[in-house]
Each structure stands twice: as C-alpha cells, then as structure tokens.
Amino acid sequence: MNQRDRIKQSGKELYMMGLQSQDIARILGVSATTVSTWTSKEGWREERAAKLSQKRTIQDRILDLIDYQLEALNERVLGYRTANPDELPLLDKGEIDALSKMFAVIKGRELQWATVVDIVREFAEHVHRKDADLAKALVPYSDDFLQLKRDLMTN
Fold this sequence. Notes:
This protein has about 160 residues and is mostly helical. Helix content is about 85%, strand content about 0%. The protein has six helices and no strands. It has helices at about 5-15, 20-30, 30-40, 45-85, 95-130, 130-155. Helix 2 (about 20-30) crosses helix 3. The chain is elongated and about 70 Å long. It starts with a helix and ends with a helix. The mean pLDDT is about 80.
C-alpha cells in the first residue's frame, strides 16, 4: 500500500468514527475537496450511515430487552401486592443483580464520558490560568480529542 492509499485509509477510519470532512482534511494534511471526493466516490457516506443504523438497531434491541425485563418484574411485584396488600414485596438477589447490570449497561458509558469531559475541562482551566493564549489555541485539539473519545465510547 502506497502513502496515498494509507492516507486515504486513515481518512476513511476517521470518517467512520464520525469526524467531519474538514477536520479529516486538517488532520491528514489534504484538501477538504479531496476528502469530500473520497466520501462520495468510495461510498463512505452510505457505509457510515449503514453502520450507524446497525448500531442504533442493536442498541434499540438491548433497550427493548431491558424494558421487557423491567415490565415483567413490575408485573410480578404488582401481582404480589394485590395478593398481599399489607406486605412490601422484596426483590431476590438475582433480580437485584439483573437490575444492577441493566443500569450499568445504560449508565456506564455516560458516566465514563462525563469523567473524560471533566478531566479535559479541568486541564483547559489549568492551562488557562498559566497561559490564556495557549488555552485558546488548544480548544480545537480538545474538541477533536473529545469527539474521538466519544466515538470510541459509543462503538
């Protein structure tokens, strides 16, 4: 694979991660027109759309399963309350474990993302206290980094 093919492959990887054409051009040192040509002639747009659609479908299926489990658990609790109105039904260890795992699936990535954003924000504030001009110059790089991390966490 020659240098141009390696650059194009890198461009495709960045595009599939969700970066915009102008950002890819800046990172790779090529023109935005070149990246735009690659995305249209090589079918990158369609490939990325299909990938995102598939990801949403998988996520939707997982959320549907979680909804089903919660509904089944809720029905069991309501049935117990109807039969025993003076008692509060407790969940067994397995049900608590299942709820904990479902919560982790939904919230784990959001919590990780919040941590990354907080660290980048704290670093930016630290740099700003030392050198405001440098902090302003780092903003595009911080944005790029956060976009890359977000894309990696959602894949």
